[in-house]
Amino acid sequence: MLFVTSVRYLFTRVPLYRRDRTSEAGSLPDFERDLPGGPSTVQRVADGTGALYHRHFWIDFTDAELGPEELISTLADDLNSAAPDEMSTFERDDDERSRSLQVGAELVVRLPGPWDGPVRVIDRTPTSFRFATLAGHMEAGEIEFRCGPSPSGRQRFEIETWARSGDPRFRVLYDTLPLAREAQAYMWSHFCTRAPKLAGGIVMSNVAVNTERYDIGPWLGVAADRRPAVTAPVSGRATRALLELPGRPYNFDPDDVGTHACEDGWHSDDYRVTLPREAPGPPVDGGSWTVARELCEAYAFADPGLVRAVYFADVSLGEREMLLEGRFLFLRFPLGVRVGEVVDRSDVVDGRPLRCWGWNYRTLAGHLERGQMDFEVRKWIDTGDVEFRIHACSSPAHIPNPVHRFGFWIFGRTLQVRFARRSVARMRRLVERRVPQHQDAA
């Protein structure tokens, strides 16, 4: 059977319009909602491993003898009428065969190889039905079949899946190597081409498939308000490493950071950039100072080509822990930091009134560097001048990996300086985009 499937896959592939992309965890469905049937046997998305794949297959057709409700009813009575039999067959208990699919009904999808998968009907409408995977399935997730009008007024048959690997072994074929995903594409694209024929319609398009990958394994099953914020998409390794930060010690003594600037091996750096001016007086809503403060708090000024951050947005800034993902060529380095303090003060410097807001972070064990980095947004009240400042006191940390240690010795200082310079330049650009153009001349 597996040989036959492989041969047919090579010679009878369905033309596909493909679109693949990596997405952020902003709009995921509620995978933790109550589902029909025994909860102990459901294999939810959170029970899987690896990346989550959202795949959407669809095909348009017209002049069908069966309407959407009739087609879905026909498929519900016999899923094998559209399934490619060399790839999959749907088996039901004798008691279920005589009835159309109902919520709570369970089936087994027979596949080539040792990958048969039990599923349960968790939703049924006149124009759709949805399955959830059960324990033992090669995937963990949900799949929906539906039919309805297309944007152009034709009929559209769709299959939508949300799934991860059901266990680490299958993850190799599903996630690391794309073999299982390609087999899935073969199966559901053929299903899509057969559904319009079953309805007696005329196919008006090739099968289209949109694939979105979410590298957010640890956050599936976490309440939506506890999912982390990212400054730009990060790897699954970085998101997992964030969970390991609580309780991790600093890799230096923060109380001594002020004395390190004079010690050999430590660097004390100061970078600043002028931002669009405001009128003299306190900061104004929507002005340069308030916009820069928002960007500073969100760590949005960091160049995502060099460093990206992931953190829990529901944790106050003063208690925040962040996992920074350093990026160099094809390498990714997880770097843990913890916010040390937040400053919000009015001051007088050299006889001039100053409004200052900022924060700093300190490096944790496992970071390639040790030290502290401060970020401040300042406004001189008498003139309206606004500036963004970065001050860093740091030195190389102990790096056990000899390759990483050598690489940091060669490139570390250069990348450190590049990060700071790009950060202040990026802050300037971001503020200029959001602040009215006339403000700089105020």
What is the structure about, briefly put?
The chain is α+β, with helices and mostly antiparallel strands and 442 residues long. It has helices at 2-11, 68-77, 94-97, 168-176, 179-198, 236-242, 257-260, 288-297, 402-434, and strands spanning 16-23, 49-62, 89-92, 106-110, 117-125, 128-133, 139-149, 155-165, 202-203, 207-214, 228-230, 267-275, 307-312, 321-328, 331-349, 352-363, 369-380, 386-396.
Protein architecture, described:
- This protein has 442 residues and is of the alpha+beta class.
- It contains 9 helices and 18 strands.
- It has helices spanning 2-11, 68-77, 94-97, 168-176, 179-198, 236-242, 257-260, 288-297, 402-434; strands at 16-23, 49-62, 89-92, 106-110, 117-125, 128-133, 139-149, 155-165, 202-203, 207-214, 228-230, 267-275, 307-312, 321-328, 331-349, 352-363, 369-380, 386-396.
- Strands 1, 2, 3, 4, 5, 6, 7, 8, 9 and 10 form a 10-stranded mixed β-sheet that branches.
- Strand 14 (321-328) and strand 15 (331-349) form a beta hairpin.
- Helix 8 (288-297) packs antiparallel against helix 9 (402-434).
- It is elongated, with a radius of gyration of 28 Å.
- The termini are far apart.
- Residues 1-7 have low confidence and may be disordered.
